[in-house]
Amino acid sequence: MYKIKVNTSHTFEVTKENMDTLDVVETSNNHYHILQNNTPIKAEILSTDFNQKLYSIKVNNNTYDVDIYNALDQQIEALGFEIGASKQVNDIKAPMPGLILEINVKEGQEVKENDPLLILEAMKMENVINSPREGIIKSVEVKQGQTVDKNMLLIEFEN
User: Considering Cα of 112, then 69, then 128, then 92, what sign does the dihedral take?
Assistant: First the structure.
């Protein structure tokens, strides 16, 4: 089963059976004719980002941004982590509310994948936040002893 989010506001669940019953014909490259309940629909794929599973689709002259979540993405989301290809992460956000116990990096520092960036205490547990990729630290947005909320920006990488 896939979870599809349209324009970051509407979420739909689609099964393989749903997709198999869809009446779709590709009329030209990235252009499709869809028949749903005897109603014709024209669709065009405007842009794709395969790694991030992001698509921009034009349906009957309306443009929609579509995110596709597979089973693994849904499990990761359920655990409270960000979805997407971890190698392309440009900022680190707090996965949960907590207290910054220790910061192990500074602006301009070069880090390797899995280097410890900081320690976040949450629910009486120390959580080491490791670097998701190699890169250079652009900014550190928090200080030791600071309380943070979920999804608060902690560290930014240079692109």
Answer: positive
